[in-house]
Amino acid sequence: MEQELILMIIQSIIIVILFVIIIFMLKQNISIRHEKRIGKYSIEPVKSKESSVLDIVYMKYFDFVKKMRKKFLKNKLLKKKSLKYEKYVELDKDNLAIDYIIHKIVISISFVLLTIFSQVLQTRLVTPIELLINLIIGYYLLDIYLFYMKKRRIKKIENEMLRAIIIMNNSFKAGKSTMQAVYIASEELPEPISLEFKKIYQDLKYGLNVDVVFERFAKRVNIEESRYISSSLVILNKTGGNIVKVFNSIEKTLFDKKKLKEELKNLTVSSNLVVKVLMFIPFVFVAIIYLLNPNYFDPLFSSALGFFVIGVIIIMIAIYIWVLQKILKVKV
Hints:
Helices cover 79% and strands 0% of the residues. It has helices at residues 2-38, 53-74, 76-81, 98-121, 128-173, 178-188, 193-205, 210-221, 224-239, 243-267, 269-292, 304-328. The longest helix is centred in the middle third of the chain and has 46 residues, at 128-173. The chain starts with a helix and ends with a helix.
């Protein structure tokens, strides 16, 4: 019993360390991107020749990614598969869609090695099913993270859309053109919405029609507010009209909608708390049972039927969480 407890503690420590390393690398990546964007506007500090161990690991890893990038780009299947990650690529020349495929493979191999290492500590042989499951989890873990980051990014854009409308409306009142209004919005607004307006400005500079540019913007962002702007500008270009009055109407509509959302959010705070508690109850029960009897779940990991039961449980929990969120969700 004591040996199993020690092994469990060692496994937990290893998982925490790996999680911290991944989070640190992601934060470092974000910091480097921000540094590149503001580097030309700041004075370079005195550079130290010494690098920390983590910085060396980080640089070595991305050197490895750059080397593998050339090989992966030669493969037509991987190149085609990487196209779906184009939407995650920011305006950064050092980052390509194929890099996400490399990251996924590295993470999946790391999960497999972690499984083998943990089973060796327990003096057990790793079954092919366990390797396959960990390989699949590791491969799709980055997709889950990217999906979450995309949802978070769209949420930020949605929160700043009213401010973008106000800036554009004030520009139109000052007699500015659509291109000038878009440029002012791209300079005044924070990221990530400023990047979207920079894309709009670039498309307009290349000579694309306003209708086409804002329709592309609405498809990229895929929120109701962007469709308001797109449809309004399309109608104005085709039929004519007072753009200031139209944007005044959009501004008032979005302001009322945002106010209503805030009121609904305040009214559903207690319900949100109940839903979060209900979502975590199954995981809490599993953790308590595991702490009381670590061998209780062993039959699930020792046969094909056990893995099938685990898959069914995961699907049921996903449906359970989805139903809870749907019950609480109120559309404005």
